[in-house]
Amino acid sequence: MKKNNPNLKTNRNILRFAYIVVGLFICVIAYMAYFVQVRSESVINNTYNARLNLFSDRMVRGSIMSSDGQVLAQTVVGEDGEEKREYPFGSLFAHAVGYSDNGKTGLEALANFYLLSSHVNLVEQVTNQLADVKNPGDSIVTTLDTSLQKAASDLLGDRKGAVVVMEPNTGKILAMISKPGFDPNRLSEDWDSLVADEGGEARLLNRASQGLYPPGSTFKIVTAMEYLREHPDDYQSFTFDCAGVYQNGEYTIKCYHSNVHGHQNLKSAFANSCNGAFAKLGLSLDKKRLKGLSEELLFNQELPLSIAYSKSSYEMNEEADTWETLQTSIGQGKTQITPMHNAMIVSSVANGGMLMKPYMIDRVENAAGETVKKFMPGSYGTLMSAEEAEMLTDFMRGVVNEGTASALRTDAYTAAGKTGSAEFDKNKETHAWFVGFAPAESPEIAVSILVEEGGSGGKAAAPIARGIFDTYFSVRGK
Questions:
Q1: Which of 97, 341, 355, 412 could form a Cys-Cys staple with 93, CB 3.0–4.6 A?
Q2: Helix crossing, 220-230 with 287-296: angle to 10°?
Q3: Where are the domains of the chain?
Q4: Closest CA to 159 of 420, 449, 410
Q5: pLDDT of 280-338, one tens digit each?
């Protein structure tokens, strides 16, 4: 009978322990590599990371620039060494650029790490340190276009609302307006009144990404898309005779100002934004599938956005009664959406069904103007098939050519879109919507426009889109 060798048993235990230590070491190395490559920047740039603010002891905060080379934010150093953050355009870029006092918002928060980093050459850095001089922080060049931002602001005027302008094939945000706004140069002086919001204007709120509104008839893009999915072979046989009012039992749905649209097919009902036709159509849809499609289009979902935003909501389920179904089908009921989310949906239509992730930072430059980091477009995924996007584009061209967005008819370019007039208070005028893109056959620019209490989307919001498109194509010489 063999005796157990105690040395052999000890060696096995040592070897087993060594394997565990090596395995843990490999896991630590792998996590460190993952952290450095993937998570380090977001953790360092977290607004709760107080140590990042210590960088300002060694660095002069960098500038924020527009895509056309205009300074949107800069740090001015006085003769006494006091630093002051200045915003040359005042309130024009307030919500997009944000502020860096009293906390940080917008690009000031998103790009905080870059603005407090410096990539000047090593000799200059050492010289500055020896002279007890702060190094200049890197600057960011944004995707924002000054001419489009100004055009959007001027066209919206003194009305409350929001405008988002995007490149559908890249996701670049070209302009983002929210009104009423504030002057970031006077933030400290006006802070108490802005926070108190005694006038109820919510000037600090970025309505473009955080304002939730009923989508109104812009939701008919979703309703029509679900109908096309459920009736791929016979959708062209849909007809409806509009008398201005649609009655279903005890429930009544009116078209805008009770307009009589007469005999309608699906395309003309979409072009004329016929509430009666879409209310009746909505009753025939599978409620579970409609909710599923809405969530595919990012209702009730996280959005691929780096800036602060509100999540859009769609609540109707299979147990919904007739009234809720009628209301939801025309973009009313409990459905809520942000102008930014609406811009993303229409951009995916313009881009053949593919949604590109919206972004506002194009590149990071050092003090010498050399690029140290470049941001490239990224795809979120396919929200609809190319065939569905093509059919919706055809319907949206009809809105401009024969329907409610006649303000966009021009020989200079083609356009596609959808108007909306969203009820939110029986005692107040409706919110006015327009979402769309141009040129219709090869989209370069997409817009989402919301005018609070603007009334008709065709009369209040579509002309703003026309002005933005005109500015875009005139600047580019088209």
A1: 97
A2: 120
A3: 10-42, 216-360+378-475
A4: 449
A5: 999 999 999 999 999 999 999 999 999 999 999 999 999 999 999 999 999 999 999 99
